[in-house]
């Protein structure tokens, strides 16, 4: 299931210390320049390659952040 959450909801999850995986889909250079605390990077052009290793627990809650509106 896919849901959309607001920035405020994400901030609340971070502030409460909720257990979830935060994934930023940014190019590597942009991620290294700045990213949200605790985020892991999954560049859009490497999802198929990296996702199985970075997101092994299919039951985990995953929040994906993308700087691009698409």
Count the beta strands: 3
Question: What name does the CATH topology carry?
Answer: Oxidized Rhodanese, domain 1
Helix content: 25-40%
Portion of residues in beta strands equals 5-15%
Low confidence ranges: none
Q: Tally the helices: what do you get?
A: 3
CATH class: Alpha Beta
Structural class: alpha/beta
The general outline is: globular
Q: The biggest beta sheet, please?
A: 3 strands, parallel
List the secondary-structure elements in sequence, H or E. Answer: HEHEHE
User: Gyration radius, to the nearest Å?
Assistant: 12 Å
Q: Looking across the biggest beta sheet, what order are the strands in?
A: 2-1-3
Distance between the termini: 18 Å
Estimate the mean pLDDT confidence.
Answer: 88
Which CATH architecture? 3-Layer(aba) Sandwich
CATH superfamily heading: Rhodanese-like domain
What is the number of independent domains?
A: 1
Tell me briefly what this model is:
With 70 residues, the protein is of the alpha/beta class. The chain is built from three helices and three strands.
Please describe the topology of this protein:
Layout: H1 7-16, E1 21-24, H2 28-33, E2 40-41, H3 47-54, E3 62-65
Parallel strand pairs: 1-2, 1-3
What does this structure look like?
The mean pLDDT is 88. The chain has one domain (7-65): 3-Layer(aba) Sandwich (Oxidized Rhodanese, domain 1). The chain has a 3-stranded parallel β-sheet with strand order 2-1-3, with no helix packed on it. The chain has helices spanning 7-16, 28-33, 47-54, and strands at 21-24, 40-41, 62-65. Helices cover 34% and strands 14% of the residues. The chain is an alpha/beta fold.
